[in-house]
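Please predict the structure of the following assembly.
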Amino acid sequence: MWTFIILLSLLIAITLLILLFEKVMGGAEERTITVNHDTLIPVVGNETALNSLSNNKIYLPSACGGKGSCGTCKFRLIDYHEPPKPTEISFLSKDEVENGVRLSCQTKVTTDLKILLPPGLLNAKVFQSKVVKIERMTYDIKMVRFELTEPMHFKPGQYAQIMVPGFEEDRAYSIASDPKNPYIIELIIRQVPHGLASTYVNQVLKVGDKVRITGPFGDFFLHEESTKPIIMIAGGSGKAPIRSIIYRLIDKGFDREATYFFGARTQADLYLTDYFMDISKQFKNFTYVPALSHLPKEDDWAGERGLITDVVGKYTKDLSNHEAYLCGSPGMIDACIKVLKSKGMKEENIFFDKF
Amino acid sequence: MKLLRMKYTKWFQTLKNGISSQNPILISVLGICSALAVTNQVENAIAMGLGVTFVVIASSSTVSLIRNFVPSKIRMVAYMVIISAYVILVQMFLEGFFPTIAKNLSAYVGLIITNCIVMGRAEAYAIKNPVKYTFIDGFANGMGYTLVLIVVASIREILGFGTWLGLPVMPGSWINWVVLSIAPGGFFIIGLLAWGLRSLTKTYEE
Amino acid sequence: MERLWDLFLASILSQNIALIFILGMCSLIAVSTSIKNALNMGVAVVLVVTLTAMINWPIYQLLILTNTTKLALLVFIITIAATVQLLEMFIEKFLPKVYNSFGIFLPLITVNCVVLAISLFFMNREYTFAETTVFAFGSGLGWLLAIVLLSGVRIKMKEISNIPKGLRGRAISFIILGILALAFFAFTGIGSA
């Protein structure tokens, strides 16, 4: 009897306490993120902004899965005066820091935040997919074909993220498939030593496996309104977005001149060569130039030899009215930009995707 | 390949994290109070370890079951009420069936309520994961905790009392390392174990 | 009076709740990275421990009267949570400067084993109200002493020595605490619980 009374008074006490909580504390534990001045995201506990947003189905790109090693999860905060953390400083320019740009994976939501996100980002969604084909392209590159249950409408050149199961981490790869078919996503994945996703894809992934894909992301894509002739430079797995772009160009009957410079080290790194050669035979406007930089002299090779920057320099004259799409390592891209500019190409016409 | 595929499953990673790469005592530095106080004898360590494992599995699973219905403002209170209920159960069980152990552990059983591991898993995992994974997470963390407790207690009991689970294991001429049977001994052993596990799994701090 | 003084001394030194009973370790290790934080956390603990012990004692007498001591654990933890919450609200509203210094530690203290332990200890040892208050206050001070000592050593160590990689961060606290605990054994016999 007494036990019952005590329990009851306890319950009443708890209820009163809760009401007091809500009234006076005003949710000390709960914060909100305001996106683009209208959407309110509730945040529970001590999460990073990246996780809080993705828990609410807003997906910021995150190539390294929130580890602070890629810098792709940048977002912009309004009225934010915390200095950047040592882990994010290397990814932010001085202007970005001043404008309140930070890495969302390094920003813990300790107070209410107001952020601005590009509207395109809010289109990125999570898709369920099934692996329908895995093809080995070279000794360290595979192409995987995913069939989605819902369409992902992407622009040629954009990228998507696949989630490595178990570890529940995302990795980013450019989309290599034809944007005409939004139910198919093809990714070209190169084995990176100790890479989380590349090890998963190379050693474990099987046809029939279900994989979670998020996308589309990125502001590297073909500018279709333009009529300028195109220079494309990409090596290794960088061929992916270029292939997607070329699909779109084929659809439009290749009404613009385009040259694709593919840089590789030796013949073992070449793939899809015949495919691109065939396209260049089919369309007068398209030229495919594979170039090998580390080919032993005695090897039989009718194509170009040397560094890709030299080959580009050799094939081009006046680029003042051209557009360029580059995909590769930061070093390669910087070197190519130098060459292109030396031929008169304007900065605003150069588009690149740095790995 | 089958074994390798297992590595990429959520249950495997959850299990591995709880026991080793994010071992609650040695890596995350949680649940220390009880780990130090009850590890002077293996018998007590096993009892405490199993007690905590039961509470963490039961409370985390309960929290996970109701995770979509708990308003975020009162979740802390909810955790405490749920955890207290299970701890009282454990207390009654021990007093009923193992009174000596209950006496040895005395207040520390009640303190399982404030054991950071139990509260920690509820807040970090149970509130946002389905029950089947929460169960594994609770089990893994509980086991990680219990294993460390047993290792520490074994070292402390063998070197500090010359026995293991009450059975003499050291030769009669053994002089007990009394320092290990008191609190500081616990600190040192855990410190050394933490050093070992962190070096092994290469999870360093700052 | 002498009894209370003995108890007070014992609770700070020979029965130090952190170094002899090894309670409140999680927060002890977590908040010992700067002396200022350590001090603030310690003060918060003293306040909460004393207050909750003083509140739980009459409630426990009620439980004894109604023969429901089985619920002691549950009742204690709930009053602790409530007290801390109310304390936090009170301080935030009326003493904002104080709130800025240690307010953020208050929610952490609810789950600090020390607070619950003090209540369980006075229950087990059947202390009077005066004894409970003195014991709680002394224990809080003892914990404050421990955390400040730990921070001091940790900070100095980080500055001037080359700690092995596996021990960096919080792990070295164990070794330091072990040595501190050993040192406190020198106080055995001072006062009596």
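Chain C touches chain A at residues 63, 66-68, 71, 74-75, 78, 81-82, 85-86, 88-89, 93, 107 (CB under 8 Å). Residues 129-160 of chain C form the longest helix (32 residues).
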